[in-house]
């Protein structure tokens, strides 16, 4: 009988264990369900919807070349899939396991909705090791990155990767499908995605091209990854997030490189696994602080007054008066991505210089990043603001101007803050007031912000 493959963030043909198993068992009906309600405040943001559209289009083309297709449906995923299983007489729905709490719930509900005689078969495939499987000696999952990473490395290299299924048989009749265009995932007016189109190639083939490109450069990563003006990070994050590429494919492609660059890079890929382990243990992590602070004393809450909301908007629009922060926030707006060093600087600026609750930053990134990831985003925001289960970073207040000089962000600032482009390398990190022109003055001085933040921290802890 036919088999459904339920696609989510695993939009690839190769190393796709659910597709593989389904293709072996019978004719395959690949299905993507757009379920806008289930994730609540983490429904896909604008940038994610843009990526999703192009990724579905690309996978649809690849399946089309194999005389297959994707059936697109909208609605509550378990209900839609159970109805489709009835309609098509499938015996099994195959899917790669996901760890966002709404997907775990949906998997449980689907199992119930399928009833007797039909099953949901779940596979691991989006992480180096299945989240929850790397444990301490006493069998508990890890909460802290470093011991987790050491323990996970013991299991490397990861499982062997699968190729594309040899044959993909079609069902006798295809169920109806929505038209992708009718989902309106792309911006209409204004069309804000011009910068995205210039910056990204979406889809599995593009992900492999980028990985090939990266294999020749990973040796430079150790030195280069902190330099936002240079292109020395992989930029694989959206491909990994959407599952156009699996981390096992990345690991096997690069593992023989044996450079310091590769070793450092491998640890970053492990951060991705770590973040899933955290949300697997603490499903509300991207919404909830885990430290015993009086947060009312820590944050100036934007809901509490228009001046603070204006501050939040200055940060969002890249108008803080700190060029490296503004370059980052404008890169985000223009391309849906920010260099990691600048993500840290910009996030630290929001929570420490502006004392704005990290959740407002998390939500803005969620809406604007093409790699917006429930685990990675939540874990990194909590790590920066020192509110999570790992290290307490609140008192490590990054100095944006020093960071900008140290990591030589001049070229990056020229690209994203063009009104400062004519300034010299010596002046561009911290332009003198009379050379700022239309570029704003600093919202707050670094020294003053630092003292205010430490003071707030002290009272929130006491
Ligand atoms: P590379 O440096 O080439 O790293 C390779 C891969 O490792 C990345 O593609 C990513 O999958 C993983 N990785 C690297 N750093 C981290 C990290 N710190 N945590 C988890 N995984 C990591 N990353 C996301 O994928 N989605 C997010 O929503 C996200 N939000 C972030 C929010 C903040 C405040 C900060 C400080 C970081 C965030 N990151 C997020 C982590 C990191 O900035 C990006 O993964 C990285 O910049 C992506 O670029 P790259 O692919 O060139 O990374």
Outline the fold blueprint.
Elements: E1 3-7, H1 17-25, E2 28-34, H2 46-65, E3 71-74, H3 77-88, E4 92-96, H4 101-114, E5 119-123, H5 145-153, H6 194-199, H7 204-215, H8 221-224, H9 237-241, H10 247-254, H11 260-281, H12 295-298, H13 306-317, H14 323-335, H15 340-353, H16 358-368, H17 374-385, H18 400-406, H19 410-416, H20 425-428, H21 446-461
Helix pairs in contact: 3-4, 5-11, 11-17, 14-15, 14-19, 15-17, 16-17
This protein binds flavin-adenine dinucleotide.
Assign the structural class, choosing from mainly alpha, mainly beta, alpha/beta, alpha+beta, or little secondary structure. Answer: mainly alpha
Query: How far is the first residue's CA from the last residue's CA?
Result: 64 Å
Examine the secondary-structure arrangement and name the CATH architecture of the largest domain.
Orthogonal Bundle
Low-pLDDT runs = none
Query: If you consult CATH, what is the topology of the largest domain?
Result: DNA Cyclobutane Dipyrimidine Photolyase, subunit A, domain 3
Number of helices: 21
**Mean pLDDT level:** 96
Query: What's the CATH class label of the largest domain?
Result: Mainly Alpha
Helix content: 40-55%
Shape: globular
The CATH homologous superfamily of the largest domain is called DNA Cyclobutane Dipyrimidine Photolyase, subunit A, domain 3
User: Radius of gyration, Cα only, in angstroms?
Assistant: 23 Å
What is the strand tally?
5
Order of strands in the sheet with the most strands? Answer: 3-2-1-4-5
Number of domains: 3
Largest sheet: 5 strands, parallel
Element pattern in H and E: EHEHEHEHEHHHHHHHHHHHHHHHHH
% residues in beta strands: 5-15%
Bound molecules: flavin-adenine dinucleotide
Family: Belongs to the DNA photolyase family.
Keywords: Chromophore, FAD, Flavoprotein, Lyase
GO molecular function: deoxyribodipyrimidine photo-lyase activity; DNA binding; FAD binding
Site (Electron transfer via tryptophanyl radical): 299, 358, 381
């Amino acid at each position: 009988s036919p088999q459904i493959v339920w696609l989510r963030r695993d939009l690839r043909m190769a190393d796709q264990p659910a597709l593989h198993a389904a293709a072996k068992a019978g004719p395959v009906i690949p299905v993507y369900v757009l379920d806008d309600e289930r994730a609540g405040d983490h429904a896909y943001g604008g940038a994610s919807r843009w990526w999703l559209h192009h990724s579905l289009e690309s996978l649809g083309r690849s399946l089309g070349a194999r005389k297959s297709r994707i059936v697109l449906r909208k609605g509550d995923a378990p209900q839609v899939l159970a109805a489709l299983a009835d309609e098509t007489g499938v015996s099994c729905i195959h899917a790669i396991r996901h760890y966002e709490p709404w997907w775990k719930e949906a998997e449980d509900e689907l199992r119930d909705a399928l009833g007797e005689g039909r099953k949901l078969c779940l596979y691991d495939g989006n992480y180096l090791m299945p989240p929850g499987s790397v444990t301490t000696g006493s069998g508990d999952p890890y909460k802290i990155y470093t011991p987790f990473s050491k323990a996970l490395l013991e299991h490397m290299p990861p499982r062997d990767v699968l190729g594309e299924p040899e044959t993909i048989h079609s069902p006798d009749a295809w169920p109806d499908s929505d038209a992708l265009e009718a989902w309106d995932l792309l911006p209409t007016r204004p069309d804000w995605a011009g910068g995205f189109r210039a910056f990204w190639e979406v889809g599995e083939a593009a992900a492999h091209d980028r990985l090939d490109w990266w294999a020749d450069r990973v040796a430079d990563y150790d030195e280069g990854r902190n330099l936002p003006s240079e292109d020395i990070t992989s930029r694989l994050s959206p491909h990994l997030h959407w599952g156009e590429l699996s981390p096992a494919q990345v690991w096997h492609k690069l593992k023989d490189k044996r450079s310091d660059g590769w070793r450092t890079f491998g640890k970053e890929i492990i951060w991705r696994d770590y973040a899933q382990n955290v949300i697997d243990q603490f499903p509300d992590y991207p919404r909830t602080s885990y430290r015993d602070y009086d947060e009312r004393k820590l944050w100036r809450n934007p809901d509490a007054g228009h001046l603070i909301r204006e501050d939040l908007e200055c940060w969002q629009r890249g108008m803080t008066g700190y060029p490296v922060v503004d370059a980052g926030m404008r890169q985000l707006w223009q391309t849906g991505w920010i260099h990691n060093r600048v993500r840290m600087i910009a996030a630290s600026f929001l929570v420490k210089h502006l004392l704005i609750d990290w959740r407002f930053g998390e939500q803005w990134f969620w809406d604007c990043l093409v790699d917006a990831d429930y685990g990675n985003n939540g874990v990194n925001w909590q790590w920066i603001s020192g509110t999570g289960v790992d290290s307490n970073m609140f008192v490590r207040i990054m100095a944006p101007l020093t960071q900008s000089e140290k990591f030589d962000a001049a070229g990056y600032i020229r690209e994203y803050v063009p009104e400062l482009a004519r300034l010299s390398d010596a002046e561009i990190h911290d332009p003198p007031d009379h050379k700022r022109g239309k570029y704003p003055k600093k919202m707050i001085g670094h020294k003053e912000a630092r003292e205010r933040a430490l003071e707030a921290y002290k009272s929130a802890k006491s």
